[in-house]
Amino acid sequence: MFDTTLSLTDVIFLAKGAGITILVTAISVVIGTVLGILFGIIRVQLGAVLAAPLTFFLDIFRSVPLLIQLVLANAFMGMVLQLQLSGFFVACMVLSLYTAAYCAEIVRGGIDAVPKTTRRAARSLGMSWGQDMRHIVLPLATRVALPSWIGLALGVMKDSALVYVVQVTELLKSTQILITRLQEPLFLLLICGAFYFIISFPLARFGGYLEKRWSND
Amino acid sequence: MFDYTFQWKQVLARLPKMLDGAMVTMEVAVLSMLIGIVLAIVLTVMRRSGSRPLAAFATTWVEVARNTPALFQIYMAHFGIASFGIHFSPFTSLLIGITFNNAGYLAENFRGALKAIPETQTRAGRSLGMTSSQSFRFIILPQMLRIAFLPMTNQMVWAILMTSLGVTVGMNTDLYGVTQDLNALTFRTFELFAIAGVIFYIITKVITLGARLAAARLFRY
Amino acid sequence: MKKFALTAVLLATTGLAGAAQADKLDDIIASGKLRCAVVLDFPPMGMRDNNNEPIGFDVDYCNDLAAALGVEAEIVETPFPERIPALMSGRVDVGVASTSDTLERAKTVGFTVPYFAFDMAVTANSESGIDSFEAMKGHTVGAVAGTYEAIALEEYVNAWGEGSTFRPYQTQADVFLALSQGQLDATVSTSTVAQATVKSDNFNGIEVVGKAPFDIDYVALFTRRDEYGFLNYLNLFVNQQVRTGRYEELYEKWIGGELPDLTVQGVYR
User: Fold this and answer.
1) Whether residue C50 sits in one domain with residue C106
2) Which end of chain C has fewer surrounding CB within 10 Å, N or C?
C-alpha cells in the first residue's frame, strides 16, 4: 500500500524528534511532580482560604490553552525580560508548571482520600506530622494518586506536541518537516501516531490495572 | 524596569474581533461536546453489546483518542483524511478532531460510571417487564450521566482549550486564530496573547462555575 | 580615602556603561556565532536536503554574512508567523527569511535595503479550472498565515464577497499539500516558490497559471530596530553582495533566469 521514499536518515531524523519528545516529557514530569507534591501538601496544610493565591496561580495553567501559555512565556521571557533562553528551556519550564498544576490536584485528592480518623489515630499513637505523612498518608494516598498520575504523565507527553511553537523540533514537528519534503502525509502521520500510541497505550493500561487492583480491596 | 514598551491601546482596539473569535470557539466546543456525548453513549453501548466487532471498533476508537495527541487527531482529520479525497473545511476538521477526542474520553468516563451502578438494577428493570434497551435508557443512562457529570465538565473545558489547535488546519475565525492573525499584522505578541489568555480563563471559569451550580440544582437529592 | 571611593564608583559605573554600550555587532563578533532566522519550507530560498540539513538561497546568504563577520553561522528554523517573535525574544540575531519590508513591521523591527525581490504567482489545482488571478473569485483560496501575500490576498477575498473563502495555513508546505489534495482551489505565493514546488514533482495536479496583481515584493534582512550599527553593516553587506557578483551567482545557483533589480526607480532610500 505504501511505496515510500523514506530513507534511513529520515528514520533517524524521526527518532531524534521522538527523543526530544521523550526528553521534554521526562524533564517536565520529574520537575512538575516534585513541585506538584509540594504545592499539593501546602494547599492541604494551609486550608482553602490561606492557599487561595496558590490555588489561583495553579488554576491558570489548567484554564488557558497550553499553546497560549507557551507563546506568552516565550514572549515574556524574551521580549519583556530580555532573557536569552532556548526554546527547549521555555518548553520545559511551561510544561513543568503545567504538570505541577495538575499534579497538585491529584496529590490533594490523594491526601483527602486518607480518612481523617486514620490520621488522628496515627497522631494519637505519638507519631509526628512527618511520621504520619510518611508512614500513613504516603502509602494510602499513593494508591489513589498513582493511576491518575500515570494518566497525567501520558497527557504531558501528548501535550508536548505543542512545543513546536517555541521552535523545538519534537516528533510531530519532525514529521511535518518530512511531509514537506516527501509528500506522504498519511504514511508519515500514521508512523507518528503509532509512536505515541505504542508508548502511551501500555502505560495507560498499566494505570488502569493498578486502579482496578487497588480499588478492589 | 523593563526595556519593553507595552502597547495595550493598539491591541485593545481589536478586542471586539477577539470576542467574535471567542464566540466561534464556544460554538466549536459546545457542538463537539453535544455530538461527543451522543457518540460516547453509542460507543458505550457498543462496548456492552457483546458483539465482538462492535466492541473492537469502540475500543479502538477510545484507545486511539486517549493515546495520541489531540493536535495529531486534528491534523489527521484535515490532511490525513484528505488523502482519500474527502475534504473538510477547517471548521469541520477542527470539530471532527475535537469530537473524536471528546467521544473517546467520555466513553471511558461512562465506563467508569457504569461500574458504580449495580448490575442488579438492570435485572430489577428487566423483571419489571422492561426490555434491556428500556432498562438501559430509563434506569442506567440517567444515573451514568449524573455520575459522569464532573468528568464531563472537565472534558468541556478541554474542548475549549483544544480549539486553539485549529490554526494548524487553516482555522482563523476562532479566538486563537484571530489572535494569531492580529499578531501577524501588529506583532504585539505579548499583549495580544495575554488578552486571549484572559478571555480563555474567563470562559473556562464561567463554564466550571455554571456546571457546579447546575449540578447543585439538578442533583440535590 | 573618600575621594578614592568616589573615583572607584565612577570608574565602576563608566566601566559598566561601557560594557552596556557594546552593541549587537560587537556581541556577535565576540560570541563567534551569528544566529539567522530562516524559513525552511520555502524553496528555493530555504529548504532541507536529503539529510534534512538546511539549504537554499537564504541559507547561503546567512553563511556569506557570517563569513564576512568572521563568525560561525547558525540556522534557526522559524515558521513564517514566528520570524519576528523569534528576533524579539532574542533567539536570533538577524532575519534572513525573505521578509517583506512593510511599514507595519518596521514599527517593530529594523529593515535593511532590499536583498531580494519577488513577484507573486497564482498556482491552481488543475481541476479547479482557475487560469488567472481574477478567476480565483468565488473559490476557496489560501496562503501562508502572516505573509505579505496572505494579507494582500485576504483583502481581495473580502472585497470579492460571498462564495470566496480565504484560508491561512501555518506553513508553505501545508498550503501546497492542501492545494494538491484539492482542499484549496488556488494559492498566491512568490513565483520562485511556486515554480520550485511545481518543478519538484512532489505535488500532483498543480500548475502555475499566472501572476497576481500585487506590487513587487521587496524583501529585506531585519534585526532589532535600535541596532543602528548592525543595520549599517547589513546594508553595506547587501550592497557588497550585488557589487561583487555574489548575488547574481546565488541567484543563478538557486533560481536562474533574469536577475531581479533591487532598486526602485525615482526615489532614494
Assistant:
1) yes
2) N
Of A68, A162, A197, the CB nearest to B196: A68
Q: Is residue C2 part of a domain?
A: no
Query: Which tens digits make up the pLDDT trace of C72-127?
Result: 999 998 888 788 888 887 889 999 999 999 888 888 899 999 999 998 999 999 99
Q: Where are the beta strands (DSSP E) in C165-234?
A: 165-169, 186-190, 206-211, 217-224
Smallest Cα distance from C44 to chain B, Å: 23
C-alpha dihedral, B144 to B148 to B153 to B157, nearest 10°:
-110
What domains are there in chain B, each with its CATH number? 8-218 (1.10.3720.10)
Q: What is the dihedral of CA A30, A36, A41, A42, to 10 degrees?
A: 130
To test the contact with chain B by mutation, choose from C80, C101, C144, C174 the residue with the greatest count of B C-beta atoms within 10 A, namely C174
> Which helix (H) or strand (E) is C198 found in, with range?
helix C191-199
Nearest to B184 among C81, C88, C167 (CB): C81
A73-87, A120-134, C57-71: the lowest-pLDDT one: A73-87
**CB < 8 Å to B87, chain C:** 181-183
Residues C71 and C201 placed together within one structural domain of the fold: no
**Do C73 and C135 share a structural domain?**
no
C176 and C223 belong to one structural domain: no
- Asked if residue C70 and residue C91 are part of one domain, the reply reads yes
Examine the domain organization and report whether C192 and C138 are in the same domain.
yes
pLDDT digits (tens, 9 = 90+) for A115-139: 989 999 999 999 999 999 989 999 9
Which of B202, B112, B122, B97 shows the shortest CA–CA distance to B152?
B112
Chain C positions touching A179 (Cβ under 8 A) are 173, 177
Spatial contact of C188 and C212, defined as CB atoms under 8 Å apart: yes
SS3 assignment, position C138: coil
Query: Is residue B142 within 8 Å of residue B111, measured between CB atoms?
Result: no
Taking an 8 Å Cβ-Cβ cutoff, which residues of chain B contact chain C?
78-79, 82-83, 85, 87, 89-90, 167-170, 172, 180-181, 183-187, 189
Residue A170 · residue A164 · CB < 8 Å: yes
Predicted structure pTM score: 0.86
Supply the range of the domain harboring residue C129: 120-211
Q: Where is pLDDT greater, at B33 or A4?
A: B33
A181 contact C CB<8A: yes
Smallest Cα distance from B69 to chain C, Å: 18
Nearest beta carbon to residue A80 from set B157, B190, B201: B190
Grid cell, residue C3, equals 575621594
Pairwise CB contact (< 8 Å): B82 & C85: no
Domain architecture of chain A: domains with CATH: 8-216 (1.10.3720.10)
Residues of A in contact with B79 (CB under 8 A): 179, 185, 189
CATH number of the domain that C75 lies in?
3.40.190.10
Total domains in chain C come to: 2
Read off the pLDDT of residues A82-115 as tens digits, 9 standing for 90 and up: 787 888 999 999 999 999 999 999 999 999 989 9
